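pls design
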């Protein structure tokens, strides 16, 4: 199996992450580091130290902090025999547990359920910082920034493994994207995105996601306020937003002439028919003997809005041969 580790600055967290992997990973695995253009020189020293320990198969150093470049790098390294792929970010510390290897346990759970395609781990909640502590440490900080800095709205704050009643996998919320085991076939179908987007898209395709109740991790970014109080949480949030399917669609369309045209067309026996405009109407001229006719629009998003839901096309008037074809 391949385990991809994404690093970006914060060498204190990186060292702790790599140390936990070195001590607790016992399953056969190729660990590949992808460093997203870290500009802290200590990152290189930390990576070199664990490279000398023999932890890595390879270190890939990117020239920019670009999520698309990260996933292109991962996709290029996945082969046909890679049934599963691991992903971890450098602010994660694996905790010991009741199993020989954390990664082996996640793989066992994945193999036991063909519908399970994205599996994360439970969080150690002790690292969550209270808003009172945050205000004491950064009294001049903007309230909104302060709450973001301590992940005040994170659903993991309410995560309770005890509610799973002994089940090995539960779903109190979507698994956090910072530590995942993914079914490669499913990932190739849905494509990478935010953890919430991927969870929803997997459900649409008949798969499911979940969280291991046994494998646990610490999220060191919860401690930024102590160790990296200068951490730019606004920039981090913008980066996370850029991972969504909607943001990917916006980037894909960048540079093209955008309009409110929904790309509405008809397929008649597999042949595309585009409309002609007649005042405020779109008129389709269909062949007389078409057997299969479908009204088609691309899947899109509401650009310039906060709503992340994919859009279809709402048809409020449809006439065929001059007769209304939509019933109230």
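designed seq:
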């Amino acid at each position: 199996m391949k385990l991809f580790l994404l690093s970006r600055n914060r060498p204190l967290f990186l060292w702790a992450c790599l140390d936990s992997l070195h001590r607790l990973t016992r399953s056969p695995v190729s660990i590949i580091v992808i460093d997203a253009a870290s500009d802290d020189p200590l990152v290189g020293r930390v990576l070199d130290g664990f490279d000398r320990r023999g932890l890595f198969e390879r270190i890939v150093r990117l020239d920019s902090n670009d999520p698309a470049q990260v996933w292109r790098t991962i996709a290029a390294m996945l082969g046909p025999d890679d049934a599963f792929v691991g992903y971890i970010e450098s602010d994660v510390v694996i905790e010991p547990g009741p199993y020989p290897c954390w990664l082996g346990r996640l793989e066992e759970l994945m193999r036991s359920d063909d519908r399970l395609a994205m599996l994360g781990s439970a969080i150690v909640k002790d690292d969550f910082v209270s808003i009172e502590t945050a205000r004491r440490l950064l009294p001049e900080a903007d309230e909104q920034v302060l709450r973001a800095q301590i992940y005040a709205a994170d659903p993991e704050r309410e995560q309770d493994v005890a509610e799973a009643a002994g089940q090995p996998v539960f779903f109190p919320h979507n698994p956090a994207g910072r530590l995942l085991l993914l079914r490669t076939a499913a990932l190739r179908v849905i494509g990478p995105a935010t953890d919430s987007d991927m969870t929803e898209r997997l459900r649409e395709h008949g798969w499911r996601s979940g969280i291991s109740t046994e494998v646990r991790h610490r999220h060191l970014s919860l401690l930024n306020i102590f160790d990296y109080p200068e951490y730019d949480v606004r920039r981090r949030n913008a980066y996370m937003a850029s991972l969504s399917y909607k943001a990917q669609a916006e980037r894909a369309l960048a540079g093209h002439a955008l309009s409110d045209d929904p790309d509405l067309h008809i397929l008649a026996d597999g042949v595309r028919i585009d409309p002609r405009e007649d005042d405020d109407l779109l008129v389709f001229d269909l062949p007389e003997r078409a057997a299969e006719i479908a009204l088609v629009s691309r899947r899109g998003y509401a650009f310039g809005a906060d709503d992340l839901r994919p859009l279809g096309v709402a048809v409020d008037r449809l006439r065929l041969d001059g007769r209304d074809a939509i019933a109230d």
